[in-house]
Design a protein that fits this description.
Pfam families: Trypsin_2 (PF13365). It comes from Stylosanthes scabra. Belongs to the peptidase S1C family. This is Protease Do-like 14. The protein is elongated, with a radius of gyration of 31 Å. The chain has helices at 2-7, 39-42, 67-77, 91-99, 137-140, 285-298, 315-324; strands at 11-15, 20-24, 36-38, 51-53, 57-59, 86-88, 103-112, 115-128, 132-136, 141-144, 147-150, 152-157, 163-172, 177-181, 204-209, 217-229, 241-245, 257-259, 265-272, 280-284, 308-312, 335-340. The chain has 7 helices and 22 strands. The protein has a 6-stranded antiparallel beta barrel with strand order 7-8-9-14-13-12. It has a 6-stranded antiparallel barrel with strand order 15-16-17-20-19-18. Strands 1-2 form a two-stranded antiparallel ribbon. With 341 residues, it is α+β, with helices and mostly antiparallel strands.
Length: 341
């Protein structure tokens, strides 16, 4: 070690925006170091203060950013029309503040023979200033076959603490989506519906709601999968797709909003995997939008289907069909399709 220290007694270090190297002027020892430096530390920041460009790295020795890119960034910093495509320090907090006033707590009182038997908690999102609230159906109704029955008295608590009695307007079993209505004398804050089809794995998302009755709770994470099939989760006979995220959600988050960093609704928080962390699932807003449109148009969701009614031919049935129609073909087995749709 002492030998190396003596040999390195004369060292010159040079650093530029495109390279860092260290070398010894003595001829019997030479060393070089190649480094990878994030752009913010190489050049003067052309971005607004408090922002950091995403994925802006370049290898040492590679060409500097083009003059066009520099001009675009400078224009953004000066309030120009071109965006800087930056993730700001307060991006998540700003999105949460934008959506938060429209997130509600839904408490459903369960009555049995006139006696309060318990209370369940969920979340919801105001999607219209008139008091229209989007939530999960399992939060507010019980299904008996295809018929939905309210679980009990619904109390909706707003972000500002005001409480209203809610009424279930529509509910769909297959999608687990419901619409609840409250009557307010003043317009209420609402959330803009975004597009779940534009999400990509790795995009930032924010979940809001009232987990375990803790109102105004915000968690953030990324999209893990944009089209997780219900069959992957063990739901046989149900053709659903979910947005999978690693946002922390718990009991009480059901029905709450999943939003992007622009504060737009991209999903409805639905469930999590109990035996794992970071596995949460939401109903995509594109599917929800179609359901809402059918609610408005028909009051329920009508799904097209294609099916056949078939009869297995046997000797008795063949004989009866020949009596009814002499033109019936001479067969001894097969399947008859009396109806199709």
């Amino acid at each position: 070690m002492s030998y190396l220290l003596r040999r390195l007694r004369t060292v010159a270090v040079a650093a530029t925006a495109s390279s860092i190297f260290c070398s010894n002027f003595e001829t019997d020892f030479r060393a070089s170091v190649k480094a990878r430096i994030p752009l913010p530390f190489q050049d003067p920041l052309p971005f607004p203060q408090g922002t950091l460009p995403l994925y802006s790295y370049r290898d040492i020795g590679s060409p500097s950013p083009s003059s066009d890119a520099t001009k675009d960034a400078s224009a953004a910093a000066q309030g120009g029309s071109k965006p800087c495509n930056c993730f700001k320090r307060n991006t998540i907090a700003d999105a949460a503040a934008k959506v938060g006033p429209a997130v509600v707590n839904i408490a459903v009182t369960h009555d049995y023979l006139g006696v309060t038997a318990g209370k369940s908690i969920g979340s919801g999102t105001i999607i219209d200033k008139d008091g229209t609230i989007l939530t999960c159906a399992h939060v507010v109704v019980n299904f008996q076959g295809t018929t939905s029955l309210s679980k009990g008295k619904i109390e909706v608590t707003l972000h500002d603490g005001r409480s209203f009695e809610g009424k279930v307007i529509n509910a769909d079993l297959h999608s687990d989506i419901a619409i609840v209505k409250i009557n307010s004398k003043t317009p209420l804050p609402e959330v803009k519906l975004g597009s779940s089809s534009r999400l990509r794995p790795g995009d930032w998302v924010i979940a809001l709601g009232c987990p375990l009755s803790l109102q105004n709770t915000v968690t953030a994470g990324i999209v893990s999968c944009v089209d997780r099939k219900s069959s992957d989760l063990g739901f046989a006979g149900m053709n659903r797709e979910y947005i999978q995220t690693d946002c922390a959600i718990n009991g009480g988050n059901s029905g709450g909003p999943l939003v992007n960093i622009d504060g737009e609704l991209v999903g409805v928080n639905h469930m999590k995997v109990m035996a794992a962390d970071g596995l949460s699932f939401s109903v995509p807003v594109d599917s929800v939008s179609k359901i809402i449109q059918q609610f408005k148009k028909r009051g329920r969701v009508i799904r097209p289907w294609l099916g056949l009614k078939m009869l297995d031919l046997n000797d008795n049935l063949i004989a009866e069909l020949k009596v009814r129609s002499p033109a019936f073909p001479d067969v001894d087995k097969g399947i008859l399709v009396p109806m199709g749709s």
